[in-house]
Amino acid sequence: MHIRDIFKQQRTTFSFEFFPPKSAEAAGKLFDTIAELESLRPTFVSATYGAGGSTRELTNDLVVRLRDETSLNPMPHLTCLGHSESEIHAILERYARHDIGNILALRGDPPRDQPDYDRAADAFGYASDLVAAIRRFNDSGTHPNPSGFGIGVAGFPEGHPETPNRLRELDLLKAKVDEGADFIITQLFFDNRDFYDFRDRCRLAGISVPIIAGIMPITSAPGMARMADLAQGARFPAAVIRAIKRTGGDPEAVQRVGVHWATEQCRDLLDHDVDGIHFYTLNRSRATREVYTTLGVRDSMDLQ
Ligand code: FAD
Questions:
Q1: Is 121 helix (H, G, I), strand (E, B) or coil?
Q2: Which residue among 107, 198, 230 is best mutated to probe the pocket of ligand 1, counting the most ligand atoms within 8 A of its Cβ?
Q3: How much is the pLDDT for 53?
Q4: Closest by alpha carbon to 43, among 152, 123, 141?
């Protein structure tokens, strides 16, 4: 089902993000996590696409398995990086055959070991080009759903480092929506004021599609350091760092602080009529389940 149609029935969406497992053992663990999260009845779940398409097959396998073996509505991420037009077309055909309803269209970052990666060989330079390609695919009528794939794109509440001009950045975000994106999922953030200001700026720029807030409960100090590296544009406020420091590094206490912070963010977002909340689960269930428990709800439907 298209996420844009879900928004017509549901006031707020709740979704979980997973990365594709690279071994049979990791796959076993991930599906244990998924079994624990399924009862929270997320609106959809998404599967990332490794840097430079490094998890191309794995993302496909995860999404198809989620579709076949669970009650979940899976959405693959797809990036421009390293792909020709015909490769993108083949990937879209495969997802259409499996009746996948939505795709998150991204530009993607080069793999870490290729900092000088030359994008000139990529058929699509920016996510907006990929959105346009998916829309063309939709128009071709290949998808079993007559309106083709629903399309999501990324947004950066605190800005994307490559476009320091924040006004231009919104024009470029609007271009993705004008090309056919139905909704935006944001980079993780820890200060809701950044999200509200971004949402206001989007509305002022004429971007009216739903904006889903990206939330990552901090589960460990090393995990936070890794995230700071991966999450471009995300700021770690002093209050978060202070709260983590107060734990003296006790892993249980760090997790409690992380869940408390994320729960407060979610409660406040719900009070401010957020369109959706997307949990970066890091393939673990505990923190997300604890956020739901601390909010006092059984599942996503209680949050409507
Ligand atoms: P774009 O929208 O193309 O923007 C990239 C930069 O180029 C921005 O600074 C933008 O302002 C600028 N720009 C856009 N259009 C133009 C133009 N026409 N001319 C000049 N400048 C332009 N990465 C992965 O590899 N795999 C994933 O699965 C993945 N999932 C993600 C999920 C979410 C929710 C988010 C927020 C990010 C994800 N990323 C993923 C990271 C993402 O690919 C990178 O942050 C990337 O640098 C930006 O992607 P984008 O889709 O926003 O790109």
A1: helix
A2: 107
A3: 63
A4: 152
